[in-house]
Amino acid sequence: MQKSTVKCRIGPSILNADLSQLHAESRRLLDNGADYLHLDVMDGHFVPNLTFGHPLVKCLRKNIPNAFFETHMMVQDPQKWIEPMADAGVSQYTFHIEPVIKEVLPICRKVREAGMKVGLALKPGTGIEAVRQYIDHADMILIMTVEPGFGGQTFMADMMPKVQWLRHNYPLLDIEVDGGVGLNTITACAEAGANMIVGGTAIIGACDQRSVIASLRETVESSIHKCNV
Ligand SMILES: O=C(CO)[C@@H](O)[C@H](O)COP(=O)(O)O
Asked: Which residues take part in binding a divalent metal cation (predicted)?
């Protein structure tokens, strides 16, 4: 009988794309093999940067009806945007636990009730113990490998023990890494056990997006395969 296992999925972050061409850029990423789109929502409070909100996601959804949309909510008040993002057609609502540490569980419930998957995100300074009790209420844990707020930063390899701990204890959990992930850093992520890979500048800035996405996938799939033989 085939062992059940996690699947590798590559989700480009569109943060550093030409946002005036968001539909075309998103289409191109999906045509080049992306499994989902990672949409970085920043409110200028939780992080010192501002991007876009549910109105833009809704427009994108109208043009791209079928792709899996993950919103990475880098916002101070994630409760506030659950309904608007569900209405905009978001598939997975990934929020940071830091500003809402006492309300994580009710927020997870509300996200599910609104029809979206739940992702819980951890900043680099947040230890895994902060999320442990909520893992069973989430579909995915996002381990940030840069300080959230900007694309193009240096990958923090010292976040890999968090990924390793999660994979060791939760063999079937979706574990995402985000920040500075590209061809030079994917092996560390894959070996630690990440299966959902967010790539920003490494994919958006590539001349050949298809081959970068394929290489990232190959590295992750070969690690998943090694763990299963
Ligand atoms: O959430 C963030 C940054 O806050 C990320 O999604 C980055 O936008 C990824 O970009 P690279 O670090 O891969 O360039």
From this structure: 38, 40, 72, 178
Stated pTM of the model: 0.97
Are 6 and 192 within 8 A, CB to CB?
no
Residue 2 pLDDT level (bands cut at 50, 70, 90): low
Closest residue CA from atom 2 of ligand 1: 148
Class of domain 9-227: alpha beta
- Report the complex ipTM: 0.98
Nearest partner of 69 among 47, 81, 86, 45, judged by Cα: 86
181 CB near ligand 1 (under 6 Å): yes
Going from N- to C-terminal start, the domains of the chain cover: 9-227
Q: Which atom of ligand 1 is nearest to the CA of 15?
A: 8
40 within ligand 1 shell (Cβ under 6 A): yes
Distance CA 105, CA 114 (A): 14
What are residue 65's DSSP bridge partners? none
